[in-house]
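Hi Y.,

Following your request, here is the sequence exactly as I used it, all 210 residues.
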Amino acid sequence: MNYVYLHGFASSPASSKATYFRNRFAERGIDLAVPALDNGDFAHLTITAQLQVVAEAAGTGDVTAIGSSLGGYLAALYAARHVEVQKIVLMAPAFCFPRRWEAELGSEAFAAWRQTGSREVFHYGEGRERSIGFGLIEDGLQYEDYPAPKCPALVLHGVDDTVVPVSYSREFVRRQGDLVRLVEYPSDHALADVTPAIWEETARFLFQKS
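Below is the corresponding structure, written out as tokens. Let me know if you'd prefer a different format.
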């Protein structure tokens, strides 16, 4: 089994959750792959390019994917297209990612992004502003808002999340039914204050024999 962790938008393999999960896997003697999803080219980031990075990190054979925010959405997209994915763990998954930008930015700012082709966003992994191309949206709109993977999924979401409201995960559960278990926490998007708890849920889901 190959295990892959997918970080969030404008984040990096050095994020706190990625590091925490990599350490917990290492304690079990398991190598957790944590690729840089922008592949060194954040300005031209697209969903398609990130899925290619996921494919390279997943390798051949069975795979389990763990994703945070945009990484959760990518994990679900990848699993819906690859039967070798056995399980997925989605932390505050950013479903409907491309379609939510206009509402979040406002019509004027979104139109300016489309017209100029790029805008500045804060890159949490680098701690500074970076340019991102509108190709992220143009490419992203070809993908479904709610992927439909055929494997079991564990979804972990904070009820106080204002970045990706928990209603998106609830809708995913409604669509996927018994394939998904949703665990809600009194936490925000980062889930930083409940990281040990989400690890415990993840370990049970991935390693406990039924």
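Residues 37 and 54 are 7 Å apart (CA to CA).

Thanks again,
Q.
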